[in-house]
## 1
Amino acid sequence: MGFDLTPVLPELFLLVAGLVLLVVGVLTREGEAARVVATLSVLALVIGSIIIAASDKSPQLALGGHYVADGFSAFLKILLFVGAALAILLAQGFLHDRRIARFEYSLLVLFSTLGMSMMVSANSFLALYMGLELSALPLYVLAAFDRDNLRSTEAGLKYFVLGALASGMLLYGCSLVYGFAGTLSFDVLADAFGAATAERPPALLPLGAVVGLVFIIAGLAFKLAAVPFHMWTPDVYEGSPTPVTAFLATASKVAAAGLAVRVLMHPFGEWTAQWQQVVVLISIASMLLGAFAAIGQANIKRLMAYSGIGHIGYALVGVAAGSERGVYAVLVYLAIYLVMTLGTFGCILLMRRQGQYVEQISDLAGLSRQRPMAAAALGVFMFSQAGIPPLAGFFGKLLVFLAAVEAGLTWLAVLGVLSSCVAAFYYLRIVKVMYFDEAAEPFDTAVHPAVTGITAITALATLFFIVWPGPLLRAAGAAAAALVR
Amino acid sequence: MAEVLYVAQTVVIVLLIVVPLLLGVAYLTYAERKVIGAMQLRQGPMTVGPWGLLQPLADGLKLFLKETVVPSGANRGIFILAPMVTFILALIGWAVIPFGDGLVLADINVGVLYLFAISSLGVYGIIMAGWASNSRYAFLGALRSSAQMVSYEISIGLIIISVLLTAGSLNLSAIVRAQEGLWFVIPHFPMFMLFLASMLAETNRHPFDLPEDEASLVTGYNVEYSSMAFALFFLGEYANMILMAAICSILFLGGWLAPFGFVPFTWIPGPIWFILKICAVLFIFIWARATLPRYRYDQLMRLGWKVFLPLSLLWVVVTSGVLVAFDLLPR
Amino acid sequence: MIAGLAFYLFAGILIASAVMVVTSRNPVHGVLFLILAFFNAAALFLIAGAEFLAMILVIVYVGAVAVLFLFVVMMLDIDFARLREGFRRNAPLGLVIGGILLIELLLVAAAWRFAPEAAALRLQPVQPDGVTNTEALGRVLYTDYVYAFQIAGLILLVAMIGAIVLTLRDRPTAKRQDVAAQIARSGSVVTRRVPIGAGLAETGIARPPLPEAPKPKQVEHQGGGHH
């Protein structure tokens, strides 16, 4: 076994960077610290991504088998690091305007990302749980980061209490599975339950282990904000500072989805039939709730919360397929979702009136006259999220539904298509408000260059994904193949 | 039958430890008054018996004969329980203290952890007393005291870790044996100094006796206590001092070992050396009380968290680094 | 035999005090019973031969966590009668949910079937070759589980940063003590060696002159009234 730390290099680098930046932040002058630490954190995340991209993609175990680095984790980690870096960049202007610019923001994002990257590399229930907690704890603090704002503290508290409950459920499920298998390691788990060998077909999972697995799925569904564990989402999304919401909606969900895929496909890959109906149920409920509940929303952050619930429903369709093709579709979906969502939050951060950030959908009226480019970008994101071709969002949905059809879940795919038609209604309503309603007051013209830049780049990526989809699809294909061996 | 004998034997040993200990507590109060008196150019107690030698007994008798008053607003059960907890905790720590080679009631292999656990429980007697008295002064004293004791426990824990690393065992007798040749006070001298100061804070003694600050709290958590209940607090506090002194001499001053391993010193038996070392540390307790002014509460906390904690943590790192680098790890 | 008796004694007190934690009317009593429960759990660990865990349970939970609990509960001003009102109202619903959970658990227990490999993988609490369990724990903790151990440390660090972020406020009016500046101060304080028993006059240390006391004002007396 030994202590070969090469596979852990990206995490190790982020960890050391985080600790060093903590000291840097404390020692730098008060006014400078936030900016310096943010810049260095983004740099650290970029270097981390480069290390992953350059590393060996063949599966390697490390640290007593609790950690695995393979193509699947590498793909997700790059997504996470990019998402986190963009969340830090998006935040700087906002935090400065709200007078809560403190260097701890970047550090907490950095540590949370570290936890997420440990999550997607987890190869045992112990590592899974520790990574999950490390990623969740900074998020609770970040949600309450605007600590003098009542809604922000409420968001933090709500997220914390419900998150602790979900952790409890997850842990209970892990302990049940451990009780029946006698091991925590994903590699050994399948054998312990009597996986298929040359002589015999796979044994049925013991009932206790199935109950445990359901608890684990419930705990992960909370992190994913999937129905019926979505109750926290609208309030937390609305109350948290907008860049934090962006981080919650992207990186956190991507990590949880990656973890769910790994748990379901790796140790329990042989027993697809035994967990499929749970995932299908969650998926349907999320798609429908995401489509219908969002219609009545007036606040755009709440709307994004419901939209995110719906998106997770679609992603879970791919998980329910339980095949390599399904995993591939989920990975592509997550990557596109991350880009679209970050872009949308960039647009939300562009909406300011008299120095105040506005969040109501009605406030968008007249955006197309005063800020045509911002309106165009938001329009692109809305069309893409609705799944209208030829934008990126369409391809994500297409792949997911194709995978479901291939796995014999045609009815699920049909349901998905129907619910995305309903969802298109509220996405298009936003476009209508932007382009056809009269403006009440003018928007501020001063903008933060980072926010504009990120919005522009993500909008272009969403728009022109069809031109050059190769690299993303190839990487996702390799990642899926690495997981489903 | 064998079990009955075993129980009887244990009871006798316990009495052999507890009775001298209580006598020691009584004469520690006498010594304290005499030493402080000498340092302040006074005589101390001189009236009862020759040189006032019977003074502690007279004090005890006085407390014993007074009426026990339970305040009407007090939470009766806890009010009475609190002094007992303090007193009992001060006594049970002695179960694992080795007085000589093999002279120990319970030679358990996590002795240090046991002592640490017992000393971390000491706070309960005080916090229970403060709360149950239903009095502002008492409660304030209890709050101060628990915050202070919890804070200093951390640095004590880290100091103990440095010693454990060097000794390679959690057993107290083994720690003493590891000091044959070189007492830990020499390689760990800075930690010895920190331990002395933390020890004062942990037992709520001068200059860290904020919990019983007469000037601002009219003696703090035990203000509502009288008679034997007060006496139990008093006994517990002084027994704790002796226990801490014993721990200090075991961890740093070589327990029962003679200072030099050759003839005139080895004639004197181990327990005598041990008691002499305890007396020396107790003298430091008294000395500090006679000479140092009381700390302010924020300074006390600052000292614990911002000075002692980083220093002791650093020393753990240094110790383990040196032990590994020069291949000095025990075993 | 003594071990058996001790086990039932500690287990009995443990369960009784756990029940008292939930049922006692006074929350402070509840916490104190919780502490008693921790103690007895530690004693059970001792009987099982896990002395390290027993001591750590006492040090960490009783010595640190429960103290903070006690702190908070003592300072809280909660009207527990009002909390109980809700309890009455919600009790039927709670009973129904509890009943469903119980039935589910019974169903699971009926179908309980251990994987055949589970028994072989079970670890032994007491090592046969005389290794103390402190050492045995240390060996596993710093080799097989070093990853989880390190992440746990990291989580604690993040918790600390989070607490500071959410609560630390720099008040401009706060006065901070600068110890270095105090120590570096010189000139205004002089140390002198004073022979024992000497008075101020003999040592030549002059006491600063007292400020002139203001002369009492003459008050005009009007008539013979008292002041």
## 2
Amino acid sequence: MHDVALKLSGRIADAASSDAATDAAVLNAAALLPLVVRNLSFRAGGRSLIDALDLEITAPGVTTVMGPNGAGKSLLLRLLHGLIPPSAGEVLWAGMPPDREVQKQQAMVFQKPVLLRRSVADNMDFVMKLAGAPDVERRDSLLQEVGLLPLSAQPARLLSGGEQQRLSLARALATNPQVLLLDEPTASLDPASVMTIERIVKDASGRGIKIIFVTHDLAQAKRIADEVVFLHQGRVAEHAPAADFFERPTSSVACDYLAGRIVL
Amino acid sequence: MQDFAEAFRLAFSLVLSGDADLFEIIWLSLQVSLTALLISCVIGFGLGTVVALSRFPGRGGVIVLFNTLMGLPPVVVGLLVYLALSRAGPLGVLGLLYTPAAMIIAQSILITPIIAALSRQIVEDLFCEYDELFRSLTVPLHTAMAAVLWDARYSLITVALAGFGRAIAEVGAVMIVGGNIDHLTRVMTTAIALETSKGDLSLALALGIVLLAISMTVNALGLSLRSTAGRQAYA
Ligand SMILES: Nc1ncnc2c1ncn2[C@@H]1O[C@H](COP(=O)(O)OP(=O)(O)OP(=O)(O)O)[C@@H](O)[C@H]1O
Ligand SMILES: [Mg+2]
């Protein structure tokens, strides 16, 4: 695992230094941006879980979504991806609602990995076949990246929690998405794997893939975020460039959260 | 007591000597029940999958109906098929009464609900599990269906085995619609009933031993499938 992480860091560093500053306009168009969310609400069980939420994401790169447990981060991701219909309001990716055409250009990694009852390799082949022919070389290189190549033939559901998360990410990348929606993809990973995943995500972002990354980990958000969306009780409490958010948070809930005081 | 021991001795010698009459009966039983199983699997898996994946008014009623029909008494099925196939019945013109075809129809009716009800549950559970992933990946419905059926194959085969076990062991339906005619519609269970009442315990016992062996084989197959599936986390 450590070997893989080390090799990987070298490879990605090379890739990143080559031409990091690609044409921003082209990236934007490719990544379905801007994302505009207007007056988005989701009610269930008599509660407003997402409450008249407004949000505009225009910049490529990594947007991290933070907030306490139950703030509505996973719900927001599902709404953005069009997996659940909102009670009110709208989500527009480059002007389009998240219908099948938009979903096809996105990939989501769920908080709780959903894996097919098949081998690791067959999980990869399944999504690659949807887009065309399975490509063994590409599959193996993706599995290599997440350190799962030696486990290719294993039933996916016998993998450890962290391995399942890494497989979910590799499978999401295999669909060649323009947008990656990641719901706490490093929640049960060991430190080396966390680094591996962060590098893969940064690398993907460098290739122009828009990343929306839910995390609780402040240190991680500092490492990877270009901007932060802070959710609290189903609303956006703060939306700021990462540096501003961590150095000069303006909302009191974000201040409390950053200081480790519970915000519920 | 002596009769009893003698009956067992004769029974084993019948089985071991490969008695022609005995094997004719066994062969017909297997043909009838395997054909009924095949028909029931096509209809039952189809119905189960459709109900699992669709939402329509009255769906709950259909599920309750499947579950109720799982416990259909074989003699009632026999009676209904008899009425349908008898000369005066709606299908009387086909002239199927007292033929193996009638027995296949009766057993199919008996086990189709079992296969439909159990496969509906299995397919629906797995589909729920995959649902968000499949919608995220915009998997077309037919691909999703094929994937769910394939990934649930071990459980579905177990369901088919359960259906076969019920078909091969039932006596009421085949007795009524087949008539237990020697060399034509006599199967293991009806032969056992007849020979026992005639007092020919050795043939009855010989058939009973074979029936038990088949039943044990089916159960062993089911068990080994389940453990394979469990070991590979496919279940
Ligand atoms: N389908 C639903 N019906 C009713 N309530 C729901 C539903 N889905 C989520 N909730 C509730 O909405 C709230 C937000 O849930 P969500 O999963 O988005 O939280 P989260 O911010 O992702 O939290 P965590 O950090 O624990 O993952 C929770 O209180 C949850 O109980
Ligand atoms: Mg969540």
